């Protein structure tokens, strides 16, 4: 349930759980020396979390949602990779925003988030979180399906499926959604 990414010559790991507790620490493996270290971070440090989504753009690592120690989360944070300083980007309220097991990609200065599990069940909506001062866009409601190349996407997974998905950029930078659910394998390009 942690996130990992490479920045410079370091492989970073944030959050997750140790089998008993959710975590919010940052560790890194120096890819040259092969030595691990813990990073001292400052600022508005995120709540411990696992099963969150993340992305990196312009030296900023972004994290949204996840499973916290008590409930699902609906907040976004950024970590300045040079200063190692956290900043809260936004806090959303409402069960449609609280989610874990969702996926994301950063494109065009926005974090595009798809699906996940919320207190009301499986989600199939798309959130567009601006990474600069602006307003959040809810691209489609929970009962509606996100647009995929002008057509509706497959229905949200049911309880017998898993909720995890993966998003990756195509060569032209457009987001590409890969369904990891066994009953709904395949992929689609999300229009943004």
UniProtKB/TrEMBL annotation:
Protein name: Uncharacterized protein
Region (Disordered): 142-192
Top-level division of the source organism's lineage: Eukaryota
Keywords: Kelch repeat, Repeat
Transmembrane segments: none
Residue spans of biased composition, Basic and acidic residues class: 173-182
SUPFAM superfamilies, A to Z: Kelch motif (SSF117281)
Provenance organism: Eutreptiella gymnastica
Ribosomal protein keyword on record: no
Pfam families in the cross-refs: Kelch_KLHDC2_KLHL20_DRC7 (PF24681)
């Amino acid at each position: 349930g942690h996130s990992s990414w490479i920045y410079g010559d370091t492989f970073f790991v944030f959050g997750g759980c140790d089998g008993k507790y959710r975590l919010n620490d940052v560790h890194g493996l120096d890819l040259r020396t092969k030595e691990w270290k813990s990073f001292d971070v400052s600022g508005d440090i995120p709540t411990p979390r696992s099963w969150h989504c993340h992305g990196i753009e312009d030296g900023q690592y972004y994290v949204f949602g996840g499973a916290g120690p008590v409930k699902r989360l609906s907040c976004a944070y950024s970590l300045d990779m040079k200063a190692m300083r956290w900043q809260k980007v936004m806090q959303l309220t409402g069960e449609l925003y609280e989610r874990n097991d969702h996926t994301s990609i950063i494109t065009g200065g926005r974090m595009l988030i798809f699906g996940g599990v919320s207190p009301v069940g499986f989600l199939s909506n798309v959130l567009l979180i601006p990474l600069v001062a602006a307003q959040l866009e809810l691209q489609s409601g929970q009962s509606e399906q996100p647009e995929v190349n002008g057509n509706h996407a497959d229905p949200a997974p049911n309880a017998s499926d898993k909720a995890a998905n993966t998003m990756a950029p195509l060569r032209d930078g457009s987001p590409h959604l890969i369904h990891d659910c066994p009953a709904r394998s395949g992929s689609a390009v999300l229009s943004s």
